[in-house]
């Protein structure tokens, strides 16, 4: 049984989302959230909502769909950053910097260059390999959370429509092949 206090299972919310989908002429709506439009990855990442059945109950699915390449780049960067922290333990990663952070421009520049070299090395050695995946979170704060990683160049209307259609029909087949990518670097 799903959580009863989840607003994404509320029939009123479900009917409202169905009306929005109908107005847009699609089975889903794009969800504008705190990420906003990030120009660097807008075509590799989308957040959508759609209505379907989950365990015999109508529910709103809150889905994040992104490209395998975007996920790969993120994992490679995190791996390189972890390796760099072993060599430079005083380095403060960007996401850990706050208003109390005292910049050390020389070290920051040196570490960021080192991270770039590590990324190239990780990619060259194919240390990171990933496959398509789909994760379901039924304890999500609004409906049923879906985290979907697909091996596509960009996540556009056609990709989202295909995913939603296959997910609702329970015919989705993910590619289990492990992939590694290489970035184009200028010397």
Give an account of the 3D structure:
This protein is α+β, with helices and mostly antiparallel strands and 187 residues long. It has a domain at 69-124. The protein is 35% helix and 19% strand. Strand 2 (45-54) and strand 3 form a beta hairpin. The protein starts with 10 loop residues before the first helix and ends in a 19-residue tail after the last helix.
Reading the helices and strands in chain order gives: HEEEHHEEH
Strand-pairing-aware structural class: alpha+beta
Q: What percent of the residues sit in helical stretches (DSSP H or I)?
A: 25-40%
- Termini separation (Å)? 57 Å
Average per-residue pLDDT, rounded, comes to 89
Given as residue ranges, the uncertain stretches (5+ residues, pLDDT < 50) are 34-41
Strand content: 15-25%
Radius of gyration: 20 Å
How many strands, which pairing sense, and closed or not: the largest β-sheet?
Answer: 5 strands, mixed
Task: Produce the secondary structure layout.
Blueprint: H1 11-24, E1 28-30, E2 45-54, E3 57-67, H2 68-87, H3 105-124, E4 133-137, E5 144-150, H4 157-168
Parallel strand pairs: 3-5
Antiparallel strand pairs: 1-2, 2-3, 4-5
Helix pairs in contact: 2-3
What's the short version?
With 187 residues, this protein is an alpha+beta fold. It has helices spanning 11-24, 68-87, 105-124, 157-168, and strands at 28-30, 45-54, 57-67, 133-137, 144-150.
What brief labels describe this structure?
5 strands; 35% helix; 5-stranded mixed β-sheet; single chain; 187 residues
